[in-house]
Amino acid sequence: MNLQDIKILTELLVKRPKISIIPHKNPDGDAIGSCLALYQYLRKKQHDVCVVSPTDYPDFLKWLPDNDSVLVFTNNSQEALNQIANSELIFTLDFNSLYRADTLTEALQASKADFVMIDHHQQPDTYAAVTYSDSTASSTCELIYKFIEKLGDVELIDQDIATCLYTGIMTDTGSFKYSLTTATTHRIVASLIEKGANPSLISTNVFDSYSIDRLQLLGKALDNLVFIEQYQTAYITLSANDLKQFNFQKGDTEGVVNYGLRIKQADLAVIFIEEENEKIIKISFRSKGNLDVNVLARKYFSGGGHINASGGRSEESLEDTLAYFLKILPEFLSLPEAYNSTI
Ligand code: 5GP
Ligand code: MN
Questions:
Q1: Which of 136, 134, 196, 132 has its CA nearest to residue 167?
Q2: Which atom of ligand 1 has the smallest separation from the CA of 313?
Q3: Looking at ligand 1, which atom is closest to the CA of residue 283?
Q4: Using one digit for the tens of pLDDT, what is the confidence trace for 92-107?
């Protein structure tokens, strides 16, 4: 975000517009954390603002300050659509292509509002008047901190805002260990702790809050794991039946894909989840080093994301999706662009 962007944004905010803040479908800690932090900041600046989520999200995020203010489309669709239709300024956070807003995509496309994108994924679309996109940032929450800083308002970050931002940075960095965790990330995190974020409480709320079913579903997933030595690839499948057996709740499969990378020789980990209600296979990819799973997700599975973490989907059966993956895997691994040259 350069000086020109700050000028445009300041001019937009001076008009006291009606504001909506939108996370991506199935928001994670970074998406909800960044939306609630920005919501609280804009409220402090006396703005008329509301967070509208395309779908519901896991219980382990519902303790966040001001969670009750979030309007969830799947719970209250008319109110969510009215809010968007009446908005004059719309922030889209933690995604960079309108299709990721899922249930809200059409309403966003139809909107006459000015858009501001704040995001850290690869290859942003160009729908926004202000695009603050930095794929080297650990998380959108890190960018929200910098955004508030650029507007000269760091002193407005209170304990609630700090708690939301800390949560997003912690979840998107895998507790401060993924490759985009930098000295800047740690400086921001230190500042958030000084402002009142409680690391051990936040970690307990997010990570040590499993149901027994969720923990046993993880056991099932690990049992289903297959490692292909030749391609240094670990994959997990979870069928709709597996999910049913363990009384699946939203968020229960979050983080499961990462276990594949625990294998020393594994460079690529994949999970295929048969989502019964949506009749699609949700796919998550994770990698080590410069193996670029954003390319894998974009080229073969209508998805995208980051170099080391991305997602996609398939409308085929679980069996056919897996067969397709196994067919394209050697081809993908032989592409020059499968190995990102920037890291
Ligand atoms: P996950 O596998 O945890 O759903 O997503 C991993 C990362 O990829 C997240 O940053 C997420 O926002 C992104 N991602 C997941 N699915 C998609 C998708 O379909 N398209 C794009 N562009 N990004 C995705
Ligand atoms: Mn993120």
A1: 196
A2: 19
A3: 2
A4: 999 999 999 999 999 9
| HSE value, Cβ hemisphere, 13 Å, CA-based, for 268 | 29
Secondary element (H or E) of residue 176: none
Q: Is 286 helix (H, G, I), strand (E, B) or coil?
A: strand
- Under 8 Å CB-to-CB from 222, ≥6 apart: which residues? 236, 259
Contact by Cβ (8 Å): 199, 166: yes
Instruction: Please give the single-letter amino acid code of residue 203.
Output: S
Where the chain has pLDDT below 50, the residues are none
Find the residues whose C-beta lies inside 6 A of ligand 1. Answer: 24, 97, 100, 121, 284, 303-306, 309-312
Q: What is the pLDDT of residue 325?
A: 98
- Contact of 141 with 147, CB cutoff 8 Å: no
Ligand nearest to the CA of 34: 2
Ligand nearest the Cα of residue 24 is: 1
Q: What is the pLDDT of residue 268?
A: 98
Cα 140 to ligand 2 centre (Å): 5
What is the pTM assigned to this prediction?
Answer: 0.94
pLDDT of residue 342: 84
Which ligand approaches the C-alpha of residue 270 most closely? 1
- Residue closest via CA to ligand 1's atom 11 equals 305
Please state, in angstroms and as integers, the Cα–Cα distance from residue 331 to each residue in 98, 288, 300, 318, 326, following that order.
Answer: 30, 18, 11, 21, 10
Report pLDDT for 276.
76
Closest to 30 measured CA to CA, from 58, 2, 1, 10: 58
Nearest alpha carbon, ligand 1 atom 16: 311
